[in-house]
Amino acid sequence: MRTLAAAAVTLVVVWAGVLLLFILRGRGLLWGKTRNAHVHSVLEASVRTVDRAIYASLERNLRKRDVASPSQLLSFSKLPEPTSRAISRAAEITEASIQALGLMQPLPPPGFVSEDLLNMIANLSGCLPYMLPPKCPNTCLADKYRLITGACNNRDHPTWGASNTALARWLPPAYEDGFSQPRGWNPVFLYHGFPLPLVREVTRQVIRVPNEAVTEDDQYSDFLTVWGQYIDHDIALTPQSTSADCQLTCESRSACFPIQLPAADASPGPQCLPFSRSAAACGSWPRSALLANLSVVAARQQVNAFTSFLDASTVYGSSAAAERSLRDWTGAPGRLRVNARHHDSGRAFLPFTPPSKPAACAPAPGSPNQTRVPCFLAGDGRASEVPGLAALHTLWLREHNRLAAALEALNPHWSADTVYQEARKVVGALHQIITLRDYVPRILGPDAFQQYVGPYEGYDSTVNPTISNVFSTAAFRFGHATIHPLARRLDATFEDHPDLPPLLLGDAFFSPWRLIQEGGVDPILRGLLARPAKLQVPEQLMNEELTERLFVLSTPGSLDLASLNLQRGRDHGLPGYNAWRELCGLPRLQTLAELHRAVANRTVADRIMALYRHTDNIDVWLGGLVEDLLPGARTGPLFACLIGKQMKALRDGDRLWWEHTPVFTEAQRQQLWKHSLSRVICDNSGLTHVPRDAFRVGRFPQDFESCEHIPSLDLEAWRETFLQDDRCSLPDRVENGDFVHCEDSGKRMLVYSCRHGYELHGQEQLTCAQDGWDAQPPVCKDVNECADPAHTPCHPSARCRNTKGSFQCLCTDPYVLAEDARTCIDSGRLPQASWVSLVLGALLVSVLAGVTWMVICRWMHCAAESTLPVIEGDAKVPAQPGCRMCREAGTSMCSAAALDLEQEPAYGSQIPLCM
């Protein structure tokens, strides 16, 4: 009996366990399905919200492409490439979804956020493809030429320094909610017991200075300032988010973080300046994070659309699509496109942007809109911002084509792609030399340069060259305080040009027509060489052209570069001034007296403390800008540290740095070292005399030298001997592709590539064997981007049509393509079919009206004739059917009847009509 009882108990326990497992598993399956359905629902809502905002922005840009506000000009100049745009959209969807999920009640149970869930969110939002490591080529070219995207420079970390990746964080971000909201998002939020000051108030009280009050630099020319801006555009571009239309709101929400105006700026118009947050980056959250801790899950990171490397992205772009649009595929081998409509005394101008892009650039005064000069097309969309920047872009376009022509003549056996890549490689090396040898030491001063940069000791694969957030958003913006309010144009004797007076910057923004119609590049270059930069003085930081008239063309409105910089630092979650001083080993400044030791100008220091109330609250850009300059430098201790650390990382973490032994031969390195910015000016302009050091301001003629005495590189070091033999002669060119010859371990090789829009079929790398090449040359076949209707590159509003080497997105009338060339938006006009329908409808209505009128007339006539007597002479004839009688009697009878009717009011309104 006891045995049976024990068995029964055991059986019950076993069944209970089985039942419990079944219940738990069923609960898990049910929760998993519920969770997945919930995540899908949240993501779908986020997609709709983000896409609606993007569509509204595209519509606004189309409506105002000819008359743009200052804030729109800023966004036009930073329009993201398609890849950057897609990443921004996916990241905004991801962030919105995670915020929504984190705020949902009840709170998700433990284990709700797993790697699978984060993968699902990344996949459904569109982020996942951009989080996967790139596929790196394994050919002999891997050590010879850079990828245009900067990927695979570091073999262990292939995304370091690549385009469309997140800016690096040297300190954890400081967001108001620990996740995404910038400091100052909530105006009543207190920091160390005090609210943050409005950035526009900081501009008014500390930064702004009248144009006539600036101090000029007695050592350095305007070229120093323009080179800094140009190099900044080479290594960083943080596009603005397109997930919200921020032009008409003064409320902080979504991607909008408007700059609120203080009471002193009160005006009848909006009480804020529009501000769109920087585009977010994908994949910045740790996979093992718990959703409940938002500061760990996905603290917002910003994307850098350009490569971090000093690689002349300003000339060649940072994406395959941009590179393709800049290369000349029909002219001489290896060249870049030039302007087909205008020349500068026989020299090339940059080409123009395509008509599909918004017309961000200003027309010449008094010119009809049809004759406006478009913006210049270059590797960076900001090339037309100011004349000096456009001139520098033009110089490097000419330099590439000059080098390509010389290298082709030296090596006639080179393919077009080899000519292009070798010229690009030399231009990139010259950018590195001019920046690290000539520019950075003047900015940091000799002591700080030695401390933070020092001599080159070779490539270090453990150094991450990715541009840091604080460098791009704060430290390297020190140059804004060195911008002169005037753009000076000089004649051949380096005096003020009689026909081209100095321009206020407000009259020069986005005005490429001034280069085309007002003397070309040479007068601008002379002004950059022979006129001083503005000196960075604490009480004279930024002139009115930047704080009151930034990007103001012919439309009302204004923009303030100083306020933009301060707001952008908060947008990016940069910690305060003291946190960065501590990172650099500098003492924290706790009191006003300690701040006075870093900022000798007591008036400026007192104003800053009156605004911020606590030293930890000071924005890093402002704090670094007002510090006393180091000896022989144009920066203070903090910015010298941050800029120096970044420049060292860019050099030491670049596997293809020009001094790294495998990149160039010793003879080539010696020639490159001889070259200079002054030589580039001599070779690509009409100037015959230049300073030996383009960054030193001097007087003509005593401080200038003839171009004949400026050293240049001898391209003989690039001559390549290619011995043809019966085994491995150079093959024929590949249609829509090309090859590059290289050697690896003594073996001759050919590496093939296809143009953008084509894919390679066959063996990529051919090796010379005993019997000839070890394979047949591959072929390049068109990629049908429209093959999968569910995953075309076009927006669902457009129809995808494949073309040779590309694709087209087509819209149905009256919809037109937006500036992204992928989305159809309403043009605001009636479709052509509607006009045809209106005309046909009007004709049909007219015909029907005529027929109806005839019927009515006949009916009314018959009715009248049936009641009226017909008068013949003096006798009255009894009434007869009106229609027949009228036809028989003729027109005169009708007239008589009508007259009689008019004389007999008893008949009322009955009027006989004859047809």
From TrEMBL:
Residue span(s) of domain EGF-like: 782-825
InterPro entries: EGF, EGF-like_Ca-bd_dom, EGF-type_Asp/Asn_hydroxyl_site, EGF_Ca-bd_CS, Haem_peroxidase_animal, Haem_peroxidase_sf, Haem_peroxidase_sf_animal, NOTCH1_EGF-like
Gene Ontology annotations for the cellular component aspect, listed alphabetically: extracellular space; membrane
Pathway: Hormone biosynthesis; thyroid hormone biosynthesis
Membrane topology according to the record: Single-pass type I membrane protein
EC number: 1.11.1.8
Cofactor: heme b
PROSITE patterns on file: ASX_HYDROXYL (PS00010), EGF_2 (PS01186), EGF_3 (PS50026), EGF_CA (PS01187), PEROXIDASE_3 (PS50292), SUSHI (PS50923)
SMART domains per record: CCP, EGF, EGF_CA
Gene Ontology biological process terms from the UniProt entry: hormone biosynthetic process; hydrogen peroxide catabolic process; response to oxidative stress; thyroid hormone generation
Annotated function: Iodination and coupling of the hormonogenic tyrosines in thyroglobulin to yield the thyroid hormones T(3) and T(4).
Protein name: Thyroid peroxidase
Lineage of source species: Eukaryota, Metazoa, Chordata, Craniata, Vertebrata
This protein's encoding gene: Tpo
